[in-house]
Recover the amino acids of this structure.
């Protein structure tokens, strides 16, 4: 039998709080998704003005980061044309996202969930995702 | 040009608060989804212990209730074998849910969003969805 | 509660009129799709001779332009190999189109819908989509 | 942070051993799927002669039993025409199986995974799934 650590709903809300605060600061209304370590949704928030397409993209970024235990921007770098991982973005029904903005949430070296942001540029999404993680890690 | 009223993220959180309170009262950890009037997700919460399958089912119930402007239990009654609507539950990629627990959110006679609950029996899901709406309507 | 502006069916027909006129002028029978600001279809027309595949592609272009509030040719530029947005074209079930020919319809600085053209070259599709928007804006 | 118990690959193999032994006894080559408590596949075996369609059906049964924490034959009973849960079998992309043969694996009152069998009659599938669980529980 394995023992797994997983974000709770309270943890998920802290991650969202941190990401939302940074999104507000930079003036970009975001879609924010938090998944558990299996990639299953725990919490989601679309700030007023967040994009419709981003409701799905944010979830897919969080899913990928958690379930593949890899930041989506790292997948992006690894899956460029010419690489043997090129094409991986169509896998898992197209849900494997290689667009920057998805980060695994890591506690004591273990992936316990994922956070995905979408509605800004990939760089802005990554920035707010990191802010969510920083806020969460500071709280524990 | 049309003018549409739509739930804000703050409205969505009030709906979730009301549904969560009732779910806590009856002791069933629920998945709770809120969509806008087009069926696009605004907010989602999986209470600790909510079912994995319910993360999708709750969203589909809210989507259906808002986008078809009909409670999912009303669809259930209308789509039983022998009815001309029988079979509608496989439409829209299977997202058209006819399982009780999805309710349209109606303000001044207009559908402004949807709420979907899943993890209990359909009756429990319906009960908590209604509690979300009652709490929201009492707040405006 | 939010208040949203959205194209009506009459608006959608004016957009199609403008796009069809230009398509006729350049001699390319087009598929023309109009969505609301959430990406949901309002009106669609396949001119005699429009391509079968384009019935879907035109809808996806209009969906993307409206729901992501961005022209599909701008996504094309942003999602080239080497970019952090590379790979986004498989998202939302592959519906997020980065092929030129989808434009958001913007009134008073707000996205109120989307128009998507398909059957010609991307340049021709973009040209006719813009003609639809020009015709619509001149009418209001 | 939550702490979750989950089947290991060694546990999964014991479950398969038990199910395979019973399938051999009744002379029905089976597809046997084991998932973790989130419904993600851990192990799969198609006995020589197992049905092609059953490679998917067995996975969906194990997924449902684990992720919804309910035996698929219990869902079958709950989702008959006339019930408010009627129609649930098309949810989660049609993966929510209500065909007998999927059982949750429960240890100390907690669902730690799921087992799904397919290729026989539902009754035979249920029989072999139970044999897998009996063999596993006897081993711990």
């Amino acid at each position: 039998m394995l023992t797994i650590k997983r974000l709770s709903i309270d943890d998920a809300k802290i991650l969202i709080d941190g990401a939302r605060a940074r999104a507000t600061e930079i003036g970009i209304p975001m879609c924010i998704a938090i998944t558990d370590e299996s990639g299953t949704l725990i919490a989601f928030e679309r700030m007023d003005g967040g994009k419709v397409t981003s409701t799905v993209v944010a979830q897919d970024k969080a899913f990928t980061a958690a379930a593949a235990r890899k930041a989506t921007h790292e997948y992006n770098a690894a899956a460029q044309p010419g690489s043997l991982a090129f094409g991986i973005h169509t896998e898992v029904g197209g849900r494997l996202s290689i667009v920057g903005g998805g980060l695994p949430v890591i506690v004591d070296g273990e992936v316990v969930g994922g956070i995905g942001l979408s509605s800004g540029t990939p760089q802005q999404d990554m920035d707010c995702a990191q802010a969510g993680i920083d806020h969460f890690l500071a709280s524990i």
